[in-house]
């Protein structure tokens, strides 16, 4: 998680009787009339991604989502719930952060009582971590209840005057506090918390159209898939192999990647297309220098056919400008010409180390690292053209029966369920 090393305590929730969880979102707040729709998707996503928590109900409360135990007899979440929230929140796209909170009435005396009740445990935890010296304290108050008698800053002063004299080691440190007391006073209630768990941001899955990812076993395409999901796109996948020149293990690897990615969205379809019939024709009939570009144009055409058939609006690839021969701007230009729908390339401008860092975080890096030969390397030329000219490529393709090749590849393809590994013909 992206916690700063100097304030680890702010990411460890003290063990307190939290009766609610306050979820913050960022971009959804700007959605105007569609906001309700986005919020409902976010709530569905919370239920889908946090099944291990005590059953909860999630309500929309003007700009926030508040989670409370479903069973009204259960007053609070337990320590395990908070640990699950901390661990799995990263899968709930749309959430910017969430805090376990004490929800109390907005009466100042009630808020004071809550602070007095909970602060000793928080202070004691801090003294455990920091055996000597000052313990930095800050309060951040927010007041969305406009008519509330105290302003945010007045609330902050009020509680500083209340707490500092009682706890001798406490000193105000606004920049890098060891204890951060957060208070949000809303019209319906006040929320008190000591910790923020960072969420992944983005938009809830389902808020954008469904897309088809060209998923290879490499490092890039799974990260591109993640980025598309993070912007709200549910995904299906297509992978190209060259059986029997490429081994079964390649498909198992891609299925494992799809399963990993599906943790963020739920179920999907994985189309496994055998490109070999087309690769053989290209090998036999075309200039070897253009093989890579010709393969890619075929992949894209087939992906567009599948997308049309399954009502998927866009394609997603892991292309990265200049990384390899197929990704020069000239070649991307020629390859892209055959697509009949948008091709999203979330990693186009990323540096490799950014991609690797995210691949590690989302758990695809280790899967991608397994060495399995890729479809693109079958009959790969030693010196692929880095600047294929559209006219030349068109001429090369004139010697191919494109429709026949596309049909031939699709005829040898299957649809796999990533979850079970079961395949059915396309
Ligand atoms: P990756 O790490 O995702 O394989 P890469 O850097 O190796 O990418 P290329 O092999 O040139 O780059 O592939 C560019 C993109 O084309 C991939 O990110 C992927 O979206 C798509 N692609 C390449 N090979 C395949 C394949 N065998 N099946 C499906 N898609 C593929
Ligand atoms: Mg690759």
Spatial shape = elongated
Ligands (ions, cofactors included): adenosine-5'-triphosphate, magnesium ion
How would a crystallographer describe the biggest sheet?
A: 9 strands, mixed
Gap from first CA to last CA? 40 Å
Which structural class should the secondary elements be placed in?
Answer: alpha/beta
Our estimate of the beta-strand percent is 15-25%
- Tell me the CATH architecture of the largest domain: 3-Layer(aba) Sandwich
Going by CATH, the homologous superfamily of the largest domain would be HUPs
What does this structure look like?
It is a single chain. By secondary structure, the protein is of the alpha/beta class. It has 2 domains: 189 residues, VC0802-like (2-Layer Sandwich), CATH 3.30.2130; 215 residues, HUPs (Rossmann fold). Helices cover 37% and strands 19% of the residues. The chain contains 13 helices and 16 strands. Strands 1, 2, 3, 4, 5, 6, 7, 8 and 9 form a 9-stranded mixed β-sheet that branches. Helix 9 links the parallel strand 13 and strand 14. The two termini are 40 Å apart. The N terminus is likely disordered. The site of adenosine-5'-triphosphate (ATP) has 20 residues, from helix 5 and strand 11.
């Amino acid at each position: 998680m992206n916690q700063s090393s100097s304030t680890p305590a702010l990411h460890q929730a003290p063990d307190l009787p939290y009766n609610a969880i306050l979820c913050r979102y960022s971009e959804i707040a700007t959605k105007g009339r569609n906001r309700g729709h986005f919020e409902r998707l976010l709530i569905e996503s919370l239920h889908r991604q946090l099944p291990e928590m005590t059953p909860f109900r999630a309500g929309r409360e003007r700009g926030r989502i508040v989670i409370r135990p479903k069973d009204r007899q259960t007053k609070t979440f337990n320590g395990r719930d908070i640990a699950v929230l901390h661990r799995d929140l990263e899968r709930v796209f749309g959430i910017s952060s969430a805090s376990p909170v004490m929800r109390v009435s907005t009466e100042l005396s009630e808020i004071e009582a809550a602070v007095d009740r909970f602060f000793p445990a928080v202070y004691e935890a801090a003294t455990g971590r920091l055996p000597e010296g000052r313990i930095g304290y800050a309060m951040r108050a927010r007041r969305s209840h406009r008519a509330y008698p105290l302003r945010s800053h007045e609330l902050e002063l009020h509680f500083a005057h209340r707490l500092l004299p009682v706890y001798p080691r406490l000193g105000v440190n606004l920049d890098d506090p060891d204890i951060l007391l957060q208070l949000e006073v809303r019209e319906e209630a006040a929320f008190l918390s000591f910790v923020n768990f960072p969420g992944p941001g983005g938009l809830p899955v389902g808020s954008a159209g469904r897309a088809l990812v060209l998923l290879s076993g490499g490092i890039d395409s799974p990260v591109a898939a993640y980025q598309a999901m993070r912007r709200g796109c549910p995904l299906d996948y297509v992978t190209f192999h060259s059986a029997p020149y490429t081994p079964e293990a390649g498909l198992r690897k891609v299925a494992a990647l799809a399963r990993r990615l599906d943790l963020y969205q739920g179920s999907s379809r994985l189309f496994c297309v055998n490109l070999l019939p087309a690769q053989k024709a290209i090998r036999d009939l075309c200039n070897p220098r253009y093989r890579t570009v010709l393969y890619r144009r075929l992949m894209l055409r087939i992906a567009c056919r599948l997308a049309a058939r399954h009502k998927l609006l866009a394609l997603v690839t892991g292309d990265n400008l200049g990384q390899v021969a197929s990704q020069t701007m000239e070649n991307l230009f020629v390859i892209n010409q055959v697509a009949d729908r948008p091709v999203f390339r979330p990693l186009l401008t990323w540096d490799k180390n950014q991609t690797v860092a995210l691949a590690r975080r989302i758990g695809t890096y280790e899967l991608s690292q397994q060495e399995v030969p890729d479809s693109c390397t079958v009959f790969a030329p030693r010196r692929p053209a880095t600047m294929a000219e559209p006219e030349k490529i068109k001429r090369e393709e004139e010697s191919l029966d494109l429709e026949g090749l596309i049909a031939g590849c699709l005829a040898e393809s299957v649809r796999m369920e990533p979850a079970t590994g079961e395949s059915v013909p396309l």
